[in-house]
Amino acid sequence: MAKKIFLCSISNINSGTCNEDCKFCSQSVKYSADIERYIKKPIETIVQEAKELDSLGALGFCLVTAHKGLDDKTLEFVCEISHTLKREVPRLRLIACNGTATVSQLKELKKAGISAYNHNLETSEEFYSSICTTHPWSERYETCENVNSAGLNLIAGGIFGMGESENDRISMLKSIASLKPVSVPLNFYHHNPALPLNPSTLTTDEALDIIRLAKEILKDVDRLMVAGGREITFKDRQDEIFEAGINSIVIGNYLTTKGRDAHQDLIMLKKLGFNIATDTKVSR
Q1: DSSP H helices in the chain
Q2: Which terminus of the chain has fewer CB atoms gathered within 10 Å of its CB, N or C?
Q3: Is residue 35 part of a domain?
Q4: What is the number of domains present in the chain?
Q5: Is residue 215 part of a domain?
Q6: Hey, CA dihedral for 157, 201, 130, 124, is it positive or negative?
Q7: Which pLDDT tens digit goes with each residue over 9-26?
Q8: Is the pLDDT of residue 94 over 60?
Q9: Domain range spanning residue 173?
Q10: What pLDDT, on the 0 to 100 scale, is given for residue 2?
Q11: 122 belongs to a structural domain
């Protein structure tokens, strides 16, 4: 039986308005990166994006906001979008990614039709203060615990290539494993010249080794995904990520960077003999 690949997609519904100082993130107002900034993306635009990505085979659709965490206005906006999408594009599995959140807030999202919540640990607890000083790593871990307590599916991952050590990578992956997520997005740092971090020095071979390491540590995860940085990290060797252990990718654009044309990804998957997953149970 052909391996099934789970396709996920992203909608940046609020862009470039975050007051945190995460050194890897162009959405922080502290670094004045040259990106598009807006408070609320029009719901009709979000629906149009969702329908287009649905037609391409995406099953997951993630609603992302650029704040430290959920507040009442953001919660109301995400719930409104969720109600609309459940009506307009019912096949899509809706994911929210809105920063730190309480159990009660997460339960409200679940009632509105959100099925999963994405909150990344980003890196190890030990390295975290090197990339962010405005909130602690422990808040991220606690939010992931809250997701499980609220009965939502947890999606939790991190970023590689920010100057962390091999021990940091192992530490983060073990922390992720302790949270028992259903999906783990592996992001590879995509440098913006406005950011204080240095560009990633990871080679494609090193990145493939990271995937193999994640596969080894995260044995029980349903979906191991390559998300941000896939195109710049793996270049013309993107097909090799699947042999290394990946069974999920993001198609379309990311938060502030362009992704590869989705049709190229579909051609690649067909050439490799893979099927597109039509439910959340995919081959490991």
Answers
A1: 43-55, 72-88, 103-111, 137-150, 166-179, 204-217, 230-234, 240-244, 262-271
A2: N
A3: yes
A4: 1
A5: yes
A6: positive
A7: 999 998 777 788 788 887
A8: yes
A9: 4-276
A10: 60
A11: yes
